[in-house]
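Run DNA-directed DNA polymerase through structure prediction, thanks.
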Amino acid sequence: MVRVVSVFLPTLATDRVRRADPSLPVETPLAVIARSGSKRWIAAADKAALQHGLHVGMPAAKAQALVQGLMMIDADPVADRAALERLTLWALSQYSPVVAMDPPDGIVMDTEGADHLQGGEELMLSGLVNRFRGRGLAARAAIADTWGAAHALARSTNRETVIIPRGETASVVGRLPLSSLRLPVETIAGLRTLGFATVADLEATPRAPLALRFGPEVGCRLDQMFGRVAEPIDPIRPADLIELHKSFAEPIGAAETIEKYVSRLVRQLCLELEQRGLGVRRADLVIHRVDNTMQALRAGTAKPVRDVAWLMKLFRDRFEKIEPGFGIEKLSLAATLVEPLPEVQSASSLIEDQMTDVTPLIDVLGNRGGQRIFRVAPVASDVPERSVQRIAPMADEVGATWPLQWPRPPRLLARPEAIEVIALLPDHPPASFTWRGKRRRVKRADGPERIFGEWWKRSAEWVAVRDYFVVEDEVGERFWIFRSGDGVDTQTGSHDWFLHGIFA
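Sure, done. The structure for DNA-directed DNA polymerase is below.
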């Protein structure tokens, strides 16, 4: 079943201006002004301007009179569309093979077969919104069974993410206002004059009178929202994208036939990549069905490749997901993400040590769920929880190393857990401690190792310290615990004890 994500960027125009000039104060209200002849009105307003009572459509002169210090910038629809196109291309490379612009302030994606690479729909949507926020863009995202429903939900709520379970679209969209149907403003006004207020009101009305007065668009939008009529997404494609197509005079559907033609496309793709000195990191197979719907499969690799057999294996593992329906009329294969891959001469020495390549294993596991595969690498920080970062499985070494003066536990807890301790202050190790309801007597201990706070990052850590101890209990289990503070001055910490790691 198709799953569509609609991303709504409510303040794209003002966010674009702020991104272009980061020196603009956040607290300064900002409005984008459109004009037609002598008329000037607000086309977009940021959060600060909206809090002052401004709204889209308000005359510019009235807005300037209401808000002192309002910064007004002329609208630039061309620049806004270019920014939206760049964001759409970025989403294409990160989230789904089928991504398109939804002008003037949205992006639409068919994520069927691709959400598992992001850890599921909930993690995908929350991560998507957070990444937009990290780029200085306000965003709301909704996922539903149809484009019309997802588009309406993203724009009809203040929640950052909305997920409508499969098959429940009809029961949810009925409560939405008429403005969510993507109809012209004049049509919406006319329907309201007739007493219609919600989508459910319109859905319960016979079509013939509506079509006679407003034309066929009202019925079409309703059918698209409820999934009775397909609304295919025409995916965006960058100018330099390497993409191959195979069309069929007669629709195909047999598994062996699909595999045969996909294999030919993969072989042609690898030849094209070889001519350009490139390798593929992400390849997308798009299946065009005769009922005007599409299905997409995405295969990713940890490093650039152009091995026909290996790419076919990655796709073959997911062929069972293909649903031919009434038949497939076209196959498209695109190299969405490529990197340089020069020819490498094989080693001439017969006795040279051969290093085990774990890339194939990473590729197989990564295509089952991309969020699960990573490496840990050191960060230049003495604070333990800040000294570790996740990096891609095949990323280059970061160049930093962990401290070697004191041992570090192989297992570091996600966050330190409070423990009850009996100990002499200020420098003695615990005589015993209680963790998760179990009391443990300390037989051996080493420490303290004093770690100072990073005052240049947070003023609250100006005098903060931790004293770490490695302790061993009566059964030989070893733990990494610390006291917050130096044991004397309360300004250095609370003097509470915590367990932070476990030794093997």
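The chain has a mean pLDDT of 88.
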